[in-house]
Amino acid sequence: RKGRGMSMKMSCQRCTKFIFVLLLQSALSASPTIAVSSASTLTPLPQIRRGSSKSDAFLDRSSAKVSNAFLRKVADIRSGAIESADKRLSQCARQRLTVLLVATALFNDMLQLTMLLPIIHTLVTSPPPLGVEGNSELALGIFFASKDICQMAMAPVAGILTSKTSPNVALLLSTVGLGLATAVFAEATTFWQLLLARGAQGAASAAVMCGGMSLIAETHSANNRGSAIGLAQTGLAGGLLCGPLIGGLLFERLGRRNTFRLAAVIVLMNALAQLVLMSFAPPERHIAADAKGGGQDQKKGGKMTLLASSRSLLTNRDILGVASSTFAIHAVVGVIKPLSQVVLDREFGVSMVHRSLIISIATVTYFMSTPISGWVSDHMSRPHLVALSLGLMALSAVFFALRTCFGMWAFNICVGLLGTSMGVAGSSSQSLLADLVDRNNIGSYSMAYALSDVADSLGLIVGPIVGLFLSQRFGPSSGVLSVGALCVFLTPVMLRIKP
Fold first, then answer.
1. Can you say how many angstroms the Cα of residue 221 is from the centroid of all Cα atoms in its chain?
2. Which residues contact 67 (CB under 8 A, 6 or more apart)?
3. Do residues 385 and 373 make contact, with C-beta atoms less than 8 angstroms apart?
4. Whole-structure pTM value
5. By the 8 A CB rule, do 221 and 92 touch?
6. Distance CA 480, CA 393 (A)
7. CA–CA dist 439, 434 (Å, integer)
8. CB neighbourhood size of 480 (10 A)
9. Does the pLDDT at position 397 exceed 60?
10. pLDDT tens by residue, 33-84
């Protein structure tokens, strides 16, 4: 009995070892997910003992070899997973720094442009040579128009600069230029120097927008590009919201020179921070894997000349449709902005402070809708979102006309829809442009964003001219509705673009 018990025990041990070897061999062919602390604890190969059978020795050695190979493979996979996780973490951190970098640059850009709003009327109406004699309203119109004209003229140059160098360099140089232009405001002694500084701000603004959007498009994939652009443009909305308030408070306490000197120092510090971040954590460029035509065509598109890229850009119907929608939306904004002051004063008798609060509704809705629409654009069709923004802007024009029937509530809804439309259009259209560049292998993102910037500025110039002309002939509502009809006309154009 004792001998039978020993033999049965030996047989069970052999079967167990054999099954263990088979399980380890099958595990080596699969992808193990077992976490081990170290690969140094390998099983030593057993020595053949005297009196042991050849089958026992074979099973002992086989199990030791397979277990050692298994532990090495698990350790290699674990170390590779840690390295890839570190790489992903580093890439995510760089992407966050890039978004923060662009958002700060856009915030400073819009802050410098809008902090002049409560100040410039006092400067223009002051005694010469800083102010002007006679028609101060005309001087104010020329002053504000100079920014959009210079931005529109310099947008193609900014696109070429970004394409020839890099978005990092373009963003850095434009921020430095914006700081120098702000310093000119502090030291200006004549109206023409103020006008020159305003034009320089417009030129720098074109490069900030082109370089910043190109930098995000190059460092983010299509899956998270919308939310990144939405967060970056939140800085733009924040500058639009804070600029008039900060400018008015600093001007009362510090005066003109110290206000703009402080603003120039802040912008130049932002440029220094950009230089430090780009030196220690340079953004990693993302290569689109879903570009049309595969790797060979993508390589060819990367070497596309600037002239060929511009020709492809201007002949692409989808990109021209997005640019036209940008033009239409900003044309409506350009019409409503001056007419709103006239309507609130003549029809409703609203004070200056109350007018500022009503206009701030658009700024708040713009600030809130920009990041939300950016996140939504990563989860649904971006052409449909651009079409939605066109519909919201057309609806805003309709409520502007309905103010005669429903009073101030209709006007407040008009202003809120205007800000929401701008927020939805800003993040979704910029993301869609990058997608179209990838899909059609046009080459550089910068020229597409330069075209969008031209459409933006052109809408703010042409919209008020056409809208105010029609408003003088047929009433304030006719001009807004005429320009708003362009948004309705472009909505099906955007819906035909394939997502």
1. 12
2. 24, 43
3. yes
4. 0.77
5. no
6. 10
7. 9
8. 27
9. yes
10. 333 334 444 445 444 444 455 555 555 555 555 556 555 655 555 455 444 4
